[in-house]
Amino acid sequence: MQRAGKKRSDSLMGFGDGVPCLIFADMHPTASAFDLMNQYGKEKVPFLFLVDFSGENASIFRIDKIDPNHLLFNINGLTNNLHTNVEPLPENIHFEVQNLDFEAYENAFNTVMYHLRRGDSYLLNLTFPVRIDTNLSLKQIFDHSKASYKLWMKERLTVFSPEPFIRINGCKIFTYPMKGTIDANLPNAEELLLNDPKERAEHFTIVDLLRNDLNMVSEKVRVEQFRYVQEIKTLRGKLLQTSSLISGELSEDWTKKIGTILSQLLPAGSISGAPKKRTVEIIREVETYDRGFYTGVFGVFDGEKLDSGVMIRYIEKSENQFVFKAGGGITVNSELHAEYNELMQKVVLPFGRL
User: Fold this and answer.
1) What is the CATH number assigned to the segment(s) 22-345?
2) Choosing a second label site near 81 at 20 to 30 A (CA), which of 119, 155, 278, 322?
3) What residue spans define the domains of the chain?
4) How far apart are CA 173 and CA 217, in angstroms?
């Protein structure tokens, strides 16, 4: 992950349309962004932060300076969406997913498998952009999605992520690696998910990676819960997913080091892979698009504690088209068609009604 302050020349958001986005007036190279987080943390100034997957761009916003007409967030109930009208859903929701080109996915998958068999990586999160057609606006999707980590940027993107990145409360830091998804409507779905050797190996790898990551910034790291099952409601039905809970202990002056802590933990292991550095290099080789802020992280420091999420379940708008970016973890035990189908299965809206 690069720590230099290089910015992409095509677009701050990686959309490639070259249109400036005024709400990113606070865009910083990540080196200065992390310094600013440390400063705000030291002064106990509440702020919202976003860091893209590449580690090249970040945005830091003082909470009291955010214009809710351009940017809204809701992180486990902490929100600036207090006086904004909720856009009602249309009577009939249209949400059509265009099939991802299978040959393009197969080519990337085969390259990933080559590196996995060589031992260059043990787990790699392979992602693709998927075109969607819908009669919903980004704001409607933000308003009605059921998710712990939600973000909306006017005419740009919306995020409705179930996955935490890190939480810090008191002097304890927590992370919640999420790996493993299955259609909840399958017979014995939970048993199938928990007993699947590929899913189990993938989850073990991520837990081990994030445990090691927490060891870089904290002490007394331990896995408190391992592979518990959660349910997500979507327009297509229910999904089951597995997560774990890992914790560590920080020093009492941790608020002065928020940016430093984040810089050491990024990119998130669950959406890159292991070993992290080499895996990210392979991702850049095989993925044919710019992730932008997809699979980056965003979160809020409220002056006392911090909560953040991984930017998965992500839709962006570019040239009046919607793109849903999605992916999944690949291991040596992965099967091409199963991984392709799992990626497409994730292109859903968490509304809970048809």
Assistant:
1) 3.60.120.10
2) 322
3) 22-345
4) 9
